[in-house]
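Lab manual, section 2.4: Encoding a predicted structure.

Procedure: take the sequence of the chain (678 residues), apply the prediction step described in section 2.3, and record the output as structure tokens. A sample record is shown.
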Amino acid sequence: LRSETRRPAGFVRYERELRSFERGGSARTLPPRAGCTTRVTFILSGKDKSEPRFGMTMLLPLVWVTAIAAGLLALLLVQKLFFPYFWSDLVFISRLLRYGIRLEVYKKRSKVVTVLDRFVQQAARIPDKPFIIYEGISYTYEDVEERSNRVAHVFQQRGAARRGDTVALLMSNEPDFICVWFGLCKLGCSVAFLNTNIRSRSLLHCFGCCGARTLVVGADLLDTLEDILPSLKQDNINVWAVKMECSLPGVETLLDKLQQAPEDPIPAEQRAVTSLKTPTLYIFTSGTTGLPKAAIITHLQSVKAAGGFWAYGGCSSDVIYISLPLYHSAASLIGIGGTIEIGATCVLKKKFSASQFWGDCRKFNVTIFQYIGELCRYLCNQPKNEKKHKVRMGVGNGLRPEVWKEFHRRFGDVRLCEIYGSTEGNLCFMNHLGKMGAVGRSNFFYKLLFKYDLVRYDKENDEPVRNKKGFCEHVSKGETGLLLSKINEQSPFFGYAGSKQLTDKKLLRDVFVKGDVYFNTGDLMVEDTDGFISFKDRIGDTFRWKGENVGTTEVAEALELVDFIQEANVYGVEIPGNEGRAGMTAIIIKPDRRFDGKKLFQHVLDHLPSYARPLFVRIQETMEVTGTLKQLKFRLVESGFNPSMITEAVYFLDYTGKCYVPLTNSMYNSIVSGQQKL
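Recorded output:
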């Protein structure tokens, strides 16, 4: 009756009959009346129990359904307005929880499943699937499984490694790096990955850190040991070369012995561990400003890192391009471990080449690549745009916003997934939404699982700000602060091998209450109102000039906006008679371009405050970087700005001439003597 557009003849009687029946009448059918073509049956309560009830009792559920629908619509509107990422966050955190639950199950069991166990499982499940593609040659899961068994048998038969030993590995990227690594782990050994760039004193220092008594060295790196071989022998360190033969005295060879070794599996009991917190690797920091530190990597950390690709949606059909050095955690733990976790294939590159990158991606149908921020920058510096490829995702860290934007413009809609976390740290952020410039995202769910804080930091005194009670102070949303991560059962910190002092230096105690302990990341970060977290600077990458703090990252980003500058490395140099350090930058000029002192002068005048403008510019052909493409500043700082001691061209910021002019010896002497106003 309510749906009628007009009141037909007889409608009044229908209403009267309805009110009468609601007071106690029985079911009754009224014939059509004039002007109404619908036969209407009133089924009234209480008279005919076999019939459905009509009236107010039937209307109440409709009211409830309408109210619930309206409420859900209102909630959806509120969610869209105030919590726009709620469902994306929920889906992503649910994946992490599923992976975390598996780790919790491992913790409760007497026998845990490690990354190596996972590899053995995959080798049994998909033996013929390519695991590694190296220089065009494919190595299946079964190939690596059998070769690593051979490695284990050789070291076991020769008595060179036993359960509980630590063996150092000095090798470039190649399949045998992984075979030796896995073979030693099958014997229950821990493996120390040595940085291939370190030499002499630093290299010897590494053995003292981790307690290794055996060294396995790649064929291409054996010559780097000649000057320290006597010291190694004196310290009773056995050296094995991954070669068929070697003329150096006292050096054992591995490849010739592998040919005679059996492929039989080593009993699983040999590698079994009862706790995920058992150390499995030692990974050394780059040592750019001092001797390397050996970060302790447990099975817990390696299993967590192996879930990175899976968390971002990686699957068994993916082909992953790894050109970062395996001696660092990004390539070994996330790259190789992640490939194993999803049962995928990895294309292993001995060394990154920007000119070969896209050709390799097309040739091997690469779908995921690992990156460091500078790697993407080098790709953007290539002359050609490349959009004919199958790459759908990049996983890494350190990507600056301007490079991120340029990468998309040049190479298409590739999903770039930032992961934040240091090798030894107990905290990880993941930018699962792909927000440009963010290293990660926090939300309500994340904060329930991980305890971190951003606190005020005094750059001048190089320490966190403490209030009158001696506790640190939180920063507001949008304000830069030092990132600290609470150390507890869920987020342990295992520290560094060989030095309790180095471990203690990374800890902050009594941060918010007496007795609490936090891991000091050393990174200045900012969290915006939407929960996106962005990297601002490293504590060590700042210097003070003219009473102000200068962030090297900020200045470098400004300089790289100049059309003829390809790359800039900013640092501070000491000038006699002046407090702090003056800004200096080493730059690389783009191909077919030239240095323009007037243009650079005007640019820094427009884009940088006076205290942040580099006083000196050093022209370089190549930038010195670590194995993970991180810029080295230490040697540049040490060499200063004396033109007579530097072979490259050096320019000085001349306000009088409104130009960067060549720095002469007489000008240098004038600056050092204080005659030149700065």
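Check your result against the sample. The chain is about 35% helix and 20% strand.
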